[in-house]
Amino acid sequence: MSGGALLADAPPPAATEQPTEAEWAAAVSAITKLPADGRVLLICHVNPDGDALGSMLGFALGLRRMGVRRLQATFPGRPEVPEPFRAMPGLDLLVPATEADPDPDLVICFDVAAVSRLGDLADRLDRAGASLVLDHHASNTRFGGIHLVDPDAAATSVVVEKLLVRLGVPLDQGIAECLYVALATDTGSFRFDMTTPAVHEMAARLLATGIRPGEISRRIFDTRPFGAVRLYGDVLGRTQLEPLEAGGRGLVWTYATLADLARHEQRPYTLEPLIDSVRCTAEADVSCVLKQVAEGEWAVSMRSKGAMDVSRVAVALGGGGHRLAAGFTGYGSAPEVIEAIRAELGRDGVALDRSGADAKAPTAGRQDQE
Q: Alpha-carbon distance 116 to 106, whole Å?
């Protein structure tokens, strides 16, 4: 079977349906029909978050339980696991992207909505015998061969658990901890709107294995180096509130520079939770954090409380994501990037109706963040 990669990001179809039975069957077949010495390469997106890393490692441990031995997990870019995730099970399966198998029999991608998020690892899709994409982004471009994309899922880990069930792999504590980290991070500790009864039921299944949620949560959400605390103080101190933007619904934003990171001796990943400290601003529906990654280049995280569709803004600026959480890579100065965001927030179709539903379906775009 050909990997069937699309090396240029294509406009996504209307991703509103769950995977079909034929897609589930194809995914199961691609895994169960691997030869005894079959090589499997698992890839998540650049700068992996809890859902990307947890989903990938949880599934990797499941494959190991099935007897798959020639198994690697990786992600593009700097081979650095953020500190909160360094105690997760399955890290022994991680290899730097430079050491990833160049010609695997099967490639499986996790939480990746577009091939651009695979960086230098994108070529593995065309060189693999088969490729499988597990994701929950509505903006998924349907790259690769077999798609398990569920935009109604709260996290990619939800799709992963369903596939493990179909493969007959029971949960153990290692798998459960990885999937719990993934589920908890993408639901904001079960606070976001996608936290459905089914999400809590999945969490209950994971907890039933004996994992310790308090310990996991302290490690993931409640532990920061003192330098990061001082860094947050500096960055939050320059936060700007613009109550008239976003159609009068309010915009709040701030930015962090490479100099900020250097001054407090912090790695870039320490800034990821900062958006939660900004989004709580009562006077603004939309919140943004700009994180400098190079001269004139910014990783932009956006959130909405429900009145605005920030995925439309992100898609228009080269990124993607969800209605209430999205991002993109911005270029220029911080004021120039914010001005581009203001302009997109003022366009038709960005405001949502009172039910929180999209006024229009998402348009094409490259998934770069969130």
A: 19
- Taking the CA atoms of 123, 128, 130 and 134 in sequence, report the sign of the dihedral they define: negative
How far apart (Å, rounded) are the C-alpha atoms in residues 2 and 125?
9
Task: Kindly report, residue by residue over 191-250, the tens digit of the pLDDT.
Answer: 888 899 999 999 999 999 999 999 999 999 988 899 999 999 999 999 999 999 999 999
The H or E element that residue 204 is part of is helix 197-207
Write the single-letter amino acid at 309: D
> Which residues, 6 or more positions from 15, have their beta carbon under 8 angstroms from its beta carbon?
137, 138, 139, 140, 142, 149, 151
210 Cβ neighbours under 8 A, 6+ residues apart: 173
Mean pLDDT for the stretch of residues 298-314: 94
Residue type, 290: L
Contacts of 221 (CB under 8 A, 6+ apart): 84, 184, 189, 273
Question: Quick count: other Cβ atoms within 10 Å of Cβ 230?
Answer: 15
Cβ neighbours for 160, distance < 8 A, ≥ 6 positions apart: 55, 58, 59, 62, 110, 134, 179, 182
Q: Is the pTM of this model over 0.90?
A: no
Tell me the HSE value of 320 on the side-chain side, using a 13 A CA sphere: 24
CA 158-160-164 angle, to 5 degrees, is 120
| Listed residue (59, 87, 56, 86) closest to 74, CA to CA | 56
Residue positions counted in the chain: 370
Bridge partners (DSSP) of residue 255 are 290
Residue type, 178: C
Q: At a CB cut-off of 8 Å and minimum separation 6, what does 63 contact?
A: 31, 40, 71
Torsion, CA 24, CA 26, CA 30, CA 33, rounded to 10: 110
Phi, psi of 286 (to 5 degrees): -105, 135
